[in-house]
Amino acid sequence: MGVWISAISQGLLFGIMGIGLFLTFRILDFPDMTVEGTFPFGAAVAVTAIAHGVSPIIATILAALAGMVAGLITGLLATKGHMPLLLAGILVMTALYSVNLRIMGQSNLSLLGMKNLFTGKWMNSMPPYIGSVIFGFIVVTIVVALLMVFLNTRLGQGFIAAGDNRNMARSLGINPDHMQVLGLVVGNGLIGLSGGLVAQSDGYADVSMGVGVIVIGLAAIIIGEVLFGELTLSQRLIAVVLGSIVYRFVIVIVLDLGFSADDLKLVSAVVLALSIILPQLNDRFRLKRTLRKGVSSDD
Amino acid sequence: MTNTQLELKDVAVNVVAGHEVKTLLSNINLKLDQGDFATVIGTNGAGKSTMFNAIAGDLEITHGTIHIAGQRVDRESPEKRARLIARVFQDPKMGTAPRMTVAENLALASHRGERLGLKSRALRAQMARFKAITALAPNGLDEALNKPTEELSGGQRQALSLLMATMRNPELLMLDEHTAALDPHTSQAVMELTQRIVAENHLTCLMVTHQMDDALNYGNRLIVVDAGHIVADYSGDEKQQLSRADLLQYFA
């Protein structure tokens, strides 16, 4: 049972990363590779800050701010440096690897014996993982609620329009470059926050913990879309979090089947690929069935 | 007394193509007064779109000045010029956000050129107004306020683009062959809507068209562009008396 509850907790914390990625991948319509650097960046900043005696809450805020700075740099490289977004993201991601090593002073840093957001009295009074689930749920609720409010403001609508049709946005006086930077800052802020929380939950930060996180984020987004179909934009934010939890369940099942933890990156990639391919196959299959039915009813 | 809404003075646009400098527009002088509705015609490559893009800010001018409603705009970005200019494009897909609903598109357009802040979009409070505005369109747009615009027909989208462009009266309305992608019936309906909105709101309008009949039938000015120059500018009675045959000489 514990492993399933832990999966929910992890799903919620990684769901924040999925939402951050959703802002750029689905609303602004480009894949932001910065994610792979920002996630461990948030983790490194939070864990290092806690290790230096900073309060876990401040450390978590610093993780989010660090992510925002990373997103800002990617945005400026793309808009002011006229660099393709993919390349800008890859450059920042690569640079952050060294930055993270510098911050931690080593390739991984443990929080063993140190207080963090997941080790408080309240957390310890709960059955295993339940406290993490409640805490994750509260953070996710705040993030989703704030984003829902933002997306329904005039600026939020301009942000959506800029991702939908740059040309139309410009003709209405909205600068799509500014919106792109805004999306990268907010999105990476959430990813940094997610990294900071996951590191505290796991009890350590590792310089390589960002490898493959973009696949996990995309899997959360796509699983959410496949499972829940047509939704409003606000509902889609919730679907990303639920997709992230379902993804974690899939990982638990796969590990249960006897796969090793070393296989997880391969499994993540396969899960994402299947999430994209299976609905297409299903559509085709239904089409064929419908056609067959059509023929038989004529008969 | 009339106010000059658009003034192009000695405007030139040169571009570098390989090792050559190519002149796309030269010595363009044009004045539109408040309420002028000018149609612009010319062969492909004559410079109509270049002139349009120069006014809208998509293309930097090499020489001259552009004033709209008395404000010099030729060093401003297209986004900044949006406070003065509203545009409807040739491609119905270019003027609306496809995944946003008709109402959301209209709400955004009602703030054209404004700084967008963190105020609520207040969509519900505006629905009655949007319903009244879209009822002007001939193709049932008022029944589709909650539909994403990607589900609309080309004619509906173009009518929506026009309504969005004129929700806040622009100092200059620019129509770039906005009926070219529509079937003749829909094109006629959108043109009639255009005529009505321009007349009722006393808008200043510049409309590029390839349809000679539209160029003749609509507006009080007709401008002919050829090889990067304005070669004719008809107005008043002179424009009224023009025929297709008169225009054909420019396409010889």
From TrEMBL, chain A:
Signal peptide: none
Keywords of the record: Cell membrane, Membrane, Transmembrane, Transmembrane helix
Molecular-function GO term, any one: transmembrane transporter activity
Transmembrane region(s): 12-28, 40-73, 85-105, 129-151, 181-201, 207-228, 237-258
Localisation per UniProt entry: Cell membrane
Pfam families named in the record: BPD_transp_2
One cellular-component annotation, GO: plasma membrane
Membrane protein topology class: Multi-pass membrane protein
Annotated InterPro entries: ABC_transp_permease (IPR001851)
Protein name, as recorded: Branched-chain amino acid ABC transporter, permease protein
From TrEMBL, chain B:
Signal peptide positions on this chain: none
Location in the cell: Cell membrane
Gene3D superfamilies: P-loop containing nucleotide triphosphate hydrolases
Residue ranges constituting the ABC transporter domain according to the UniProt record: 6-252
SUPFAM superfamilies listed in its UniProt record: P-loop containing nucleoside triphosphate hydrolases
Domain of life: Bacteria
Major subcellular site: membrane
GO cellular component: plasma membrane
Topology class, membrane: Peripheral membrane protein
Keywords: ATP-binding, Cell membrane, Membrane, Nucleotide-binding, Transport
GO molecular function: ATP binding; ATP hydrolysis activity
The protein's name in its UniProt record: ABC-type uncharacterized transport system, ATPase component
Organism of derivation: Lacticaseibacillus thailandensis DSM 22698 = JCM 13996
